[in-house]
Amino acid sequence: MTQYWCELAWLGGDTATGDVLVEVEGERISAVSTGVPCPEEAVRLTGLTLPGLANAHSHAFHRALRGRTHAGTGSFWTWREQMYAVASRLTPDSYFLLARAVYGEMAMAGITAVGEFHYLHHAPGGVRYSDPNAMGAALVAAATEAGVRMTLLDTCYLHGGIGSAPNQVQLQFSDGSAGAWAERVARLAGSSTGVRVGAAVHSVRAVDPDAMRTVAEWARAHEAPLHAHVSEQPAENQQCLDAYGRTPTAVLAEAGALSDRFTAVHATHLTDADIGTYGQNHCTICMCPSTERDLADGIGPTRRLAESGARLSLGSDSHAVIDLFEEARAVELNERLTSNVRGHHTVPALLAAATRDGHACLGWPDAGALAVGQWADLVSVRLDSVRTAGVDADSALGAAVFAASAADVHHVVAGGRVVVAEGRHVVLDVAGELSRNIAAVMEGA
Amino acid sequence: MTQYWCELAWLGGDTATGDVLVEVEGERISAVSTGVPCPEEAVRLTGLTLPGLANAHSHAFHRALRGRTHAGTGSFWTWREQMYAVASRLTPDSYFLLARAVYGEMAMAGITAVGEFHYLHHAPGGVRYSDPNAMGAALVAAATEAGVRMTLLDTCYLHGGIGSAPNQVQLQFSDGSAGAWAERVARLAGSSTGVRVGAAVHSVRAVDPDAMRTVAEWARAHEAPLHAHVSEQPAENQQCLDAYGRTPTAVLAEAGALSDRFTAVHATHLTDADIGTYGQNHCTICMCPSTERDLADGIGPTRRLAESGARLSLGSDSHAVIDLFEEARAVELNERLTSNVRGHHTVPALLAAATRDGHACLGWPDAGALAVGQWADLVSVRLDSVRTAGVDADSALGAAVFAASAADVHHVVAGGRVVVAEGRHVVLDVAGELSRNIAAVMEGA
Questions:
Q1: Which of B175, B317, B323, B357 does the annotation list as catalytic?
Q2: How far is B126 from chain A (nearest CA, A)?
Q3: pTM assigned to the model
Q4: Which residue, A160, A167, A278, A417, has most beta carbons within 10 Å?
């Protein structure tokens, strides 16, 4: 049993609580008590301790593009060409090394679970690896070594666009049919500790309604999370309306995809009916604000979605930055930019998106809270850095959401294991591995 | 003479240059050579070296509110009440201590010059200090001790609104008349090394057109920078239109305020004519994106302003964050959010706003570039942190603007003096001073 004593901790309320003792047995929290002086044998966590953060939408290999594409002109679609060029150069070995470093960066940012929206299944030209799940297995191994729990959202990706065949790069993504996708996924090893398998529909562009139905049925049969990119770009909506006479949300609904296990990623350009649909179905919406502004997607209707009954989660997606505090505050601040009014989402609501609801949408309903029986994920945030210095107990939660950065994450415990201590990953030289492995991948560029 | 050898440096072009030797004599750069191996006696700056960053708009005392107000509801106007409460508790002594820590945080973020938009002139109730410039002198001393050059933008603030008297707190801001403002400013000590005095018109709310004319004449006679808050809020525009039948920009123009020494701060809600006016007069526009999104101001038309011929500079304003990389990228990324297209401002243009054009609008045309005769300001940015790792020489500038944070600033030389070494301020315990001095100020809250 290990004891962690937290100077301040967020137990789910409107403010932080002082002098909190969290006891951990194995990978779970066994007791939480408040108003307790620090026992001698306890690990002392200064600053503010939060539950583990969940990064609900990741494409790990996009990290290689950080700093290289943001200055570009054009749109999402021109950016996609650069991203495809990296995809075509990855192998299971090189992707393992790259992803391990990326998940290491996530751990250092306080992320204890990641949803990897994984569609880079096959070798160039669509050639199958001898283990057809070699890429997914590499990602699972990478997350495990980095100390981050993973939900592998194995993604069905069949078409280059509605009614068109996959291009040369997209052949690496495609299983050929939803049936083949399901067969491959069936061969994924059963879930081990800290690893879950979920499903994803890449988008209405890449998956037709019949195939969607197959994926949704698989997710239902396995009680697994089901994610999909939805309405990130107006062009996608238009193509969908032209082909099916309804919005992407309506197409997904008709295919039986929507439920409380469904997460719509981005959901930027929605109709009123779409918003109502997500609320009625108790879906989660995963916002990725730093990517959405980088790719000029626009600002999604997060307030109206939350009011409709949908839950929100957060993702760093293309990893322009990996900083869930930045994502959380952007949800509120983007609404301010469009409305000229403050106060759309409360601080506890933004923290819930980063923690409890993020974990829940990845199939970890037993994580993201400092409570008995939950996964023992603790993230301490410094309140004595130049960014956070000057706050008091009453303002600590607001400071974490609106002023802290990933650089303020000091100590991270994930599933009972210390992953980051004093701002350093306990196993990996994360920055060095990022440098080496990105250089290796980009060399042929 | 000190030599600094830079692994990579930005010399003003589209990409960084390798192996740059910068020689410094006293407070100026005496030589810059490229393609030079590192001399034994040189200080070696790894990563990317930039010219000093200029923070063109600061209200130092707002730093006390970081983390405490962002979660609020309401608007700019409700936030202002909280800000006034802090203003009413400051004395020259306590403001000196607070500001020194805030400028220390700026130094650690690579800022070598600050424009302090200073209107907190008097004691509670408007009582004059025995030295009527005691507050301004405290700010100058604070910046000097923190190692940051200062332009004290001494601000004229007379009215509580158009046609209304100052309220109780605003009495601390008001000199009673523009003539009294000019008399007080005349008593400010002459400029010493690293300190300049400029003028500011708080806003059309606080300064009537006749008073504006007096301030503009003072600035012209002294060839000094002149700044003003302009069109931050739609309500301000409406009040101005109601009172004067023209926009704030047009009122300022008619008062003779606009020239290439004029900087409009925020300039969020402009007409087409306003934009043209700023271009024709070669004015600078100081954007403060992190504050503008916090206060729900909106997104200013930066692309159209730049196209009109206006220059851009950057400010951290209310210090919700102090990170000019974050401000620089937000100028581009906010345009993406409104247009759904990428590529409005180039990386060199965004860097120029953070460096050369920022310094110029503060009256330092001889700073903000790594070139002979310029102030010896050098800022090294780590390219081996988890945020920046993986970039190469070609992508270094893009990474600095789009991926780096203030936490990546490693070494700062300002006016030939080392101010920050290995990420630490060489004189001040900045985080500790922020904690102590903010607590002292907030105690009576």
A1: B317
A2: 28
A3: 0.96
A4: A278
